[in-house]
Amino acid sequence: MVDWSQCSGVERVAGKVSGTWLFQGTRAPVPALFVNLEDGATVDDFLE
Predict the structure, then answer these.
(1) Mean pLDDT across the stretch 5-21?
(2) Cβ pair 2, 9 in contact under 8 A
(3) Chain mean position to CA 8
C-alpha cells in the first residue's frame, strides 16, 4: 500500500471529495487516475 502522505503532489482535505486523496489543488481523486489507466486511457486522456 502506498503512503500518499509523503507525496507532495497530493492532498487529503476533510470534507473535500469525502476526504479521499486528491491531486494537489484539484478535486481529481488519485484513485480515478489508476481506474482510467486500467481501462486503457492514457495520462493525457485523464488530464483532458
Answers:
(1) 93
(2) no
(3) 12
